[in-house]
Amino acid sequence: MKRSQVWLLSLFVALIAAAVAAPLAWFVAAGISARQKPGPIETRVARTARHFMIPASAREMKNPETATPEVLELARNHFADHCAGCHANDGSGASEMGHHLYPRAPDMREDQTQNLSDGELYYIIENGVRLTGMPAWGRGGYDDEDTWGLVLFIRQLPHLTKKDLDEMEQFNPRSPAEMQEEEEERRFLNGEPAPRGKNPNH
Amino acid sequence: MRRTVLVTLAICAVAFTAAAHGNYKHVLGVVTAITDTSLTVETQTKETQVVKIVADTSFVKSGAPSSLKELKVGDRVVIHAKPVGSDLVAHEVRFGRMDRASGSAGKN
To answer: What's the number of CA atoms in the CB half-sphere (13 Å) around residue B77?
Structure first.
């Protein structure tokens, strides 16, 4: 083997080693904590990878549903019930969960989400995204009317009104403690004394 | 030492409660004064609480949309308010009798 070939081979091996060691070192240094936000490079790499990992046939799918008021209302209530826990009713990601996920729940009103194709949104909702908080909500087919309705609703997120948001609150999941609190508030408004042992002004 | 532990637990409990309520503070009491920009409420523990009213504040009377004009001194109110600095800013003010069907105005 010629000396130049040895150099080239050494350089190649060194590059491979660096390519493996650098992310490993970064991962070890960063640990598994989700307290930090992903950096811009990690975000770019992850989004690019996501784009290429969604099959082209899925990216190009067209939404078979039409944005009628009935379909949008159903999807809006579905979003409030299933998605808002992380994404917030307005899609901003400003929720207790959304703020602490890694990566953070995105502001879906912005271009990074709105520029995704209908097919990409459908695929993400149906299949979820590994190593994020996004679960797979569907069975993996291409004909889930509810998911296509959600895609239509996501397009409406930048234009929601306060009335929409107020109505959505009725569909947000509630814990037993919150339901009990609502009952206590209802009883208070009906003239009953505030519950014993409970500080009404907490 | 015991005091430190109790204070820490109390802070944790308050923080947990605030988080569970979506960071809104719930004020239950009787209205003692009304202006265009604030409500003064006497709570069940006889404390006076002033809550700011802003353009986005919504009013719900017996489960239906309402307005500040319909609220009277002496009414019982449940206010969901957001702490902003040292102030409380009302997100929603509920008043009027509520039956079970109209009692659910959502999660705050």
So the answer is: 32
CB contact under 8 A, A193 and B44: yes
Q: Which residue has the higher pLDDT, B31 or B10?
A: B31
Report the percent of chain A where pLDDT is more than 90: 63
What does the pLDDT look like over B41-74, one tens digit per residue?
999 889 999 999 999 899 999 988 899 999 999 9
Sign of CA pseudo-dihedral A138, A143, A145, A149? positive
| CA B29/CA A202 separation, integer angstroms | 12
Nearest CA-CA distance, residue A183 and chain B, Å: 7
Q: Does A99 touch chain B (CB under 8 A)?
A: no
Q: Considering chain B, what is the average pLDDT of its residues?
A: 78
**CB-based contact, A92 to chain B, within 8 Å:** no
- For residue A179, pLDDT over 70 is answered with yes
Q: In this model, does residue B77 exceed pLDDT 80?
A: yes
How many Å apart are CA A56 and CA A53, to the nearest integer? 9
* H/E element, B66: strand B64-66
Closest CB from A96, A175, A185 relative to B78: A185
Q: How far apart are CA B59 and CA B62, in angstroms?
A: 10
* A189 pLDDT tier (thresholds 50, 70, 90): very high
> Smallest CA–CA separation between A99 and chain B, in Å?
12
Nearest-CA distance B2 → chain A (Å): 23
pLDDT score recorded for residue A69: 96
